[in-house]
Amino acid sequence: xxxxxxxxxxxxxxxxxxxxxxxxxxxxxxxxxxxxxxxxxxxxxxxxxxxxxxxxxxxxxxxxxxxxxxxxxxxxxxxxxxxxxxxxxxxxxxxxxxxxxxxxxxxxxxxxxxxxxxxxxxxxxxxxxxxxxxxxxxxxxxxxxxxxxxxxxxxxxxxxxxxxxxxxxxxxxxxxx
Length: 177
Prior knowledge:
Layout: H1 2-16, H2 24-36, H3 39-50, H4 56-68, H5 74-98, H6 106-118, H7 123-132, H8 139-152, H9 158-175
Helix pairs in contact: 1-3, 2-4, 3-4, 5-6, 5-7, 7-8
């Protein structure tokens, strides 16, 4: 029974590569993790934390966060992690286009999730809107307004967005004459 308890912890510690060792403290922490998830999910969290240079405490926080989000199985967790990374990649691309530094925030990811899953907009359309939001003081909320308006108008392709933008600019030009 002791080997059953130690082997998965050893695998996790090896993945994290932080120099932590199997001892009563780390075994107790692993038991707490096991109360939340199976060994395969714990190891997946370990890989995610290792990629960010984080340790055992971060793994436990990640597992608790997944539990709070209602994720149950390894399939739920894998789907969530895939979506999380895809949303981060979109935010990162927008940040680069805007010359903005920093890491994507939870609020940024929530907006991307809204655009992709509720408004059903393509990544291409989001990035096109992103280019239009480039000069804004707060580009993420501005982009949200652009994309929400496009979705409300049934705009689903870059060509439709460009036509809409051209019409908007024409109206602006007329109004300023």
